[in-house]
Amino acid sequence: MTQTALYSDKKLFLSLYKSALRRIRGMGIIYGLISLITLPMFFVIEAIEAQERMLQGYSYYNFSGMPEIYTNASVILYFAAVIAGTIIISVYVNSFMHSKKAVDVFHALPVRRPQMLMANFAAVLTVLLGVQFICYGIVIAVNEVTIDQITLLIVYEMLRVALLTVLIAAITFFCCVCCNTSLDSAIFTGAFLAIVPSYTVLICLLMEEYVTGFSGSGEVMYTALKFSPATMLYQVFSDGELTQGILLNTIYIAAIIAIMFISCRLYTSRKSETAQSASTKSVLYQFILLAASVGGGALFGFGYQGIFGWGIDSITLVTVTSCIFTVVIYLVFNAIVSRNPKPTKRGLAGLGASLVLTVAFLFCISNGFFGYESRIPATEKIESVSINYAGDYNEVSTAQINTRGTLYYYYAGNSNVVFTDSDEIEMVKDIHKTIVDSIDKTGIECVYDNILITYTLANGREMVRMYRNDIPIEVMKQLVKLEDLESFKRQLYPVFETAPDMVKSFRIKDGFGRNNHTVTLSPEGVEKLYSAIAQDTLNTTRQMKDQHTGPVLARIEIMYKDDADTIVKYINEKAIEEAQQLPGGFTKAMAAVETARYEPYLKERTQPLHQNVIFDVTEDCINTIAALRELDLEEYTTLTVPQDMTAYVTYCYYPYDENQNTPYWSTKKYYDQLSFYDNIRWEERRNEYKEPQQIAQLAENSKVSLYGPAQEEVFYAVLFTESDVDINYAEWDEVDYMAYYIQGRDLPDFVKFEDIDNFERDIVGYIK
């Protein structure tokens, strides 16, 4: 091996740097052209089109990322350009290491190897970052004269991308030092960048199938993204929500320094005669080979059983198939890198280790993953817990702002209710414990649902559990108890997060859908009725909803204002409240700037703050009844059966999951008002009733909504409408009507179906 000089002139570093720049000049020009096409050019085209749309009165653009400068095409193409350009240029500048003719020449120079490596590294960064700064500079310049995005965000984005690019280049240099050919260097770099996200996806896939309660979203996926600069870079381009805080940026910088320090030390002792030989003797090769064979074997084994095999229910069959694929991948990978299809004794030992690791890996997954399934944190370690249950408030939708400055509606059922009180936390823990205790048990009644429980712990971490099926019916009975908590109602019902001055009017109709009027009240009247609805909402319990025997006297729909000032005020208040929960001053400042930027668009496109905010007045709503009487709306406080009404009654088929045959349903009053008309008019087996006494009894026994766990019996649908309506032809929005439910045991005696006895015996009897 040719030894390098121990000392050298410091000016040689600059000479080496310039020499490396000349060697990669051509590739740098190609990389620059591709980058200009995939980022600035796409941005310019979309920005010009967006400006033209704005002149025509349409304020939207198709950009993504945190500064919103990437089109759908540039997200893919520019990401590929940065990754491929970084790896190819880094491998090319170090290609002399992998050539027997060139390596002796370079190592004979009177310069230390670390100095030579760092000169090459500096040259690569100059080309890569220089091109990126030019691209983002063009974007900033065009942005200033077109759509006027936030320049500070674009600069911050440029620095984020630059840091990730430097980290990818450092990893590539490390692989170049450890490998003996340029091809191996590129392959191992790709493996390094993909190993953490690939294993994360694999583990999530297997745990989703075999570990009850596992959720692959949130912190788990974010952690995987952070550990790979390639996936983090893609997330930056496509989404931008995963911001790099000071701590993460510090870790990246420390990783770059550590990787380059290790690379310099390894390069100092690298043997020149290993150039162009197989890289099979390095520790890096053994690590990559084991990771690829174990992970690839498990992934292909799972996929094969799911598509071509006997299914994925049997972990034994998946393990056997995975072992077969592990052997195939190990031998093929080893043959490609070693250029020799015959495995050596050392290779056979590695193959055995791969099989052992594959079996151990799948064994851990199939056995609860070290207590993952049964873990419930202690109450004293929990700061808060959230659960995705909204009960009767599922139909309420809230105005939210999107990335284009317009409003859309976000349904409460997609929200998580957060509890911080110790007693409330214990209630959620009891729900969680009921689910955990049912794992691996048979013979229990289960329902299909989607329950997400998220614990925020005192140490700042989160514990997430997702249960997608086989949820015991007892859990549903526990969930409905959450509806009696004041914190539950205050988080979900809009009347508690908006003020009376945001109300425009009230749309009121009686329990039969008649006397439909839009009532505009004075500010004092709005305050009185609004406060009464809020108080009765707090006073109404789940038991009162399920067991009340009186009719629904009236239905009140709260109509919120849609003027620009009200919308802007509401959105800004919500944004400020959410910004206070964000980490870091920079992120909070950016959130405030983002909100201010959207105000002009909000004033152009306004919508009501909330939709479908419906309150049903029953005999239990004493405050609302009193307020209605004081406001001269007494006709909505008692129920008088009209003479020209018809009631249609049919029994419902769908409170039972087809697989589990268990009694669970969750009716939503707003959705059912839109759907029951069609359901009933196409139902052949329905009864009609016109007698006032019968209609009164049906109204007396009707309920707005039902929850299966509270009444484990069959239920019926009843629809009241005007007698002159032809239900077979009229559209649902052409008539006034009200749809309710009647529990099986509350069905009046005069309601008879031809096969009702058989139905109750087959369904209700089966349940019991």
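(the above was protein one; protein two follows)
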Amino acid sequence: MVLLYLCVPFSMFGQKTAKLSFGVISDTHFENHAGEGAIVKTSRTLKNLTSTGSLDALFVVGDLTNYGYSDQYEKLISVFEDSNNYQNSVDDIVLMLGNHDMFSVDGKKNYEESLRPFNNGEDYPLHTYRVIKGYPFITLSQLGVSCNDTSNPNSSIESYPPETLDTLETYLERATSQCPNKPIFVFTHVPPQYTCYGSWAEFEGDDWSTSRLNPILNKYPQCIVFCGHTHYPLGDPRCIHQGVNPNSPRENYYTVVGTGTSTYSEINPGAVDVGIHPKYFVRVTEGLIVSEQDNGNIEIRRYDTYRNHEIGNNNRWIIKAPFDGSMFEYGDIRDRDDNPLGRILRNGAPAPSFPNGTVLDAESGVNEIKLLIPQAKDNDCVFRYGVKITKEGQLIAERFFFSQFYLNADMPDTLVCTIDSLNANTNYLFEVKAYDSYDNASHPIVEMFSTLSELSDEYPKPYAYWTFDSDNPLYSCQKDYADLLPVSIESGEVVIRSSMDQAGIFPVAGIHAGDKAISIPHDTGLKLVLDDGKAKNNYTIIMDIKQRDAESFNALIQTSMSNLDDADIFVSNHQIGVAEMGYYGYISENEWHRIAFVNRDGNFNIYVDGDFLATGAGSRWVVDAEGVYFFLDDSNERVDMELAGLYFWEIPLSDCQIKNLGNGVINTDINRVQRPRTSFRMYDLSGKMIDKNDYGAKVAEGIYIKEGKKVLIK
């Protein structure tokens, strides 16, 4: 029996529990730089997964590195040997090869030699057998750079050659003899065909599997196989599968569990319009905790290790004893043509549903409409939304949008889905259905929206704006809504000045003949104060600026009211952006540019002269309840500049609206055009949509009765 020990004094973390408990992660891909990168993500994964308690072992199911180079293994070792990355003890770290680890011509050699610290200085084994607390464990390395029976059978043979199959047979026979009536835990990178999500090409549009292991595993229904490779998210119920026919030609009569990913997620091709990498796919890392229960069953808990959140805590997967196949309950409708025993098949029912009274909302542009779809509910997960667009009864297009269920606690309450390539000034009927992983569809919600005309004045009136043409340049044309105050830095603190003169701000010529602007010195800024005193996560800011120096750092927006952090948006080296989202476009010196900033529920977008440049996400761009600074930075990274216009909307304008505004004159006299509604929606004070049926009688405008008390609904 091969025993591997991690060279870290884990005993400092406390006592081990008596019952078996182990963790499983996969696809760490060291030196893959998606998002924060493998070092940050794996460190967080280890810390969050071990926060659940001590583990007898942690299995890493292949694709340890991105290319199999020795320096990538060095980074892996530095993370796994760092005791700061563990909140509780892990007795054994067990590794195996995946296809990415074989990308280097020396992949196998680098694996064996680089991982010697994990095997008492000896070459790290390709395959292992061990017994932990009376349970047998088998690991198999993949020895090829790809594995796809359908397109290239030879690649599957290379990945799992005859000697690997012989090893598996030997280990399974040993496990059956040494540990009778116990489940056998098997770990390998590639899923067996016709098992978990990602191994059915006919249903999922791709095949991440191998049939090489099926004939052997099919003899052992007590096998519980853990596989990586697909990166498919654990919130999908298809990630666990048990066969329904021991004599099936598919040879899938055992349990297979997908392990998610520790670096970035994917979904199957063809499911949604954007492809296999939907929005925020780099912010998904996952893992499993597998535990022995008092009754002898095996419990599998799924974890979002990015957010330290258990996935489906009310629906944990249970592998029931006896482990002979008689208690299998995770077959599904993919097996419906091969079910002679008449097993109950999971079909995802009931279908997803929208709460009563759910309606669509939209943001209209000239050639696009952004649908705002409130998320539906499902017993497992809402996988995607189908949108049919018709015009005068004719089907124009059908689109599919990912629900982002893999974000778990960060899954948005409302999904923003952009329908583009539409005609201007046209009515379209939208029918939206929610689908689960088995394509069960909800009842539709239907509503008509219109695109805007191509006139440039088809946008809402700014909530507050300053054009600096009056005798009092900082006077807001909607004074009851906001104030713009001059500020300067004194002994490191922001000080509000009583006048422009006191702050050193003075009038200059504007963009057009007869227009005015203001000149703002490098040690001075402006503060926008919103009278309602509420933070803003949805807004649009447009500023017309001219810089004398576009090479040096110049802060444009600062959301920290203490001004103790870097500003949130800079111009630097003739580009605009910030470190974590990059710098884009071109900002010339001594020329006017119209810069637009749009925050849509945490998605921050930058435009220059009407053209979209970049997007980022996070909480740093939320406008504070106290307001927002312009042209301030904690280290005074600022240059002298001129400002000809500043406009603020408490809503996010669309891409088309920003493009229409371009760098022309903004009409501040138009009224906001609102679509008449035949139904209405209600929100609580946090901005979350609610069901009016949760409340009692309406006693006054916006006031309802709940549990005998008046409740204000905005």
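Reviewer note on protein two: The longest strand covers residues 382-391.
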